[in-house]
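Q: Focus on the chain.
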Amino acid sequence: MTDFEYETELQVRFRDLDAMGHVNNAVYATYLEQARVDYYADVLGVGLDDIDTVLVNLEIDYRHEVVLDDEAVTIAMGVRSIGESSVVVGYEVRAGDRVAATAETTQVYVDPDEGGSRPLPEAWVEKMESLR
């Protein structure tokens, strides 16, 4: 098992920058979200917008700035734990050979009609487990 079983690359856009010329701290959350979109499509075969999950926790530790000249960031992801209805994912945001940030999110699979959580589909659990 590796710490990060999935990677995706995202372009650093001019609009991502703040007045100081580096990627704004809030944009990192968007990078993580796009990485989840890619992961769900590539690994689980579903669109993140087609499933009922909510983000219940987000933690980001910033280590190094990302600037427009970096051109792209690599988001490395690894499932840390799988609960009955939740998934905890760890991330590294990399710019070149530098780790710009580390992060962790928790998502919960919810029932849109009843409210509250519901069990993760077994097929998803199997696919996530197979990469760990």
The mean pLDDT is 93.
